[in-house]
Amino acid sequence: MVDAATLRSRNAAFWTGAAAGWIRHADRQDEIGRPLGAPAMDRVAARPAERILDVGCGCGGTTAELALAVGETGTAVGVDIAEAMVTAARQRFSTRRYPGIRFRAADIETLDVVPGAPFDAAYSRMALMLLADPVAGCTTIRRSLRPGGRLVATVFRDGSVNPWLFATMLGAAPHLGALPPLPVGEEPGPFSFADPVRLTRVLTRAGFTAVTITPCDVTLDAPDEADAVAEWLIEVGPAGAAYRAAPPAGQASARAGAVRLLDRFREPGVGYRLPAGLWLVTALAAGADKPSTAARPPVTYHRQPRQDENR
Ligand SMILES: C[S@@+](CC[C@H](N)C(=O)[O-])C[C@H]1O[C@@H](n2cnc3c(N)ncnc32)[C@H](O)[C@@H]1O
Question: Is the C-beta atom of 63 inside 6 A of ligand 1?
Fold first, then answer.
């Protein structure tokens, strides 16, 4: 396993390189990718006048949603390590339309507290599993919350319940240059929080209590535009930087490769239905600024009905 400093600089470099793709697809990500954060958005239930932190806010779509919920008397602060994404977020969501919105470019792992603290709640859509040192990052989050403040987040479960992620990668990668190193063991990556025991351990060490981890199955509905969908998924994934660096012929082959493997999720004339398996994570900030020493933290697992079961 690589040391923490190397992982941290690798993480910063990865997100700096990934930013262009995320900015390019920001609207698509917010619209089609909304189910990835919707269970946490519902659960955090931001109320008028609250102060909410959005961790790993990317191009700011969820921060804007939170800003609308807290209204003029509240605050929604989005933090992201990628400066270019934060700049894009400021351009997309102005304080004129979203009075309480603020964005800050920072590594959550190295801040003492997020400026604007104490927050009533912290929200995060699909970012916590990507932290180089998740205990450090979650400790900053906990210190930035008022005692008893709530953390509500989504992260991926394992790869088997998110098969489109592999389909995109395996289809595109053979046509592109070198990709970032694949995560090993507990290194940051989409599935580094697949194990709920590890996730609970991280949050408990960071000083959270009352941890609950609930499986949620959602579906991303994308239009029947094979090339555009493949490009979006490639550019927001690990192959994004290599894709943008590739010549047009290489990009076309990468898209074609991804389209081929994504075909199993396509309903012709209707669109793509991409199944995503998430954990919905909730926890409360303990008051004292020291890690809990509980040997066996209280963890509850709940099964949620699949989206299709609700129909
Ligand atoms: C998978 S993206 C999700 C972005 C956004 N939440 C969304 O759903 O559209 C993960 C985000 O976490 C950010 N991130 C990764 N490590 C971070 C860190 N240490 N501190 C702050 N942000 C970080 C990345 O820059 C990226 O924008």
Answer: no
Domain count for the chain: 1
Give domain status of residue 148, yes or no. yes
Residue 170 makes CB contacts below 8 A (sequence gap 6+) with: 257, 261
131: helix, strand or coil: coil
Q: What is the pTM of this model?
A: 0.92
**Dihedral of the CA atoms 246, 250, 252, 257 (nearest 10)?**
-110
Each of the 311 residues of the chain gets a pLDDT tens digit; together they read: 688 889 999 999 999 999 999 999 999 999 999 999 999 999 999 999 999 999 999 999 999 999 999 999 999 999 999 999 999 999 999 999 999 999 999 999 999 999 999 999 999 999 999 999 999 999 999 999 999 999 999 999 999 999 999 999 999 999 999 998 888 888 999 999 999 999 999 999 999 999 999 999 999 999 999 999 999 999 999 999 999 999 999 999 999 999 999 999 999 999 999 999 999 999 999 975 544 444 334 444 444 444 433 33
Q: Of the residues 24, 80, 193, which should be mutated to test ligand 1's pocket, given the most ligand atoms within 8 Å of the CB?
A: 80
Structural domain that includes position 111: 4-162+180-223+275-291
Q: Is residue 84 part of a domain?
A: yes
Residues near 98 by beta carbon (within 8 Å), at least 6 away in sequence: 64, 67, 68, 76
Ligand 1 near 234 CB (within 6 A): no
CATH number at residue 136: 3.40.50.150
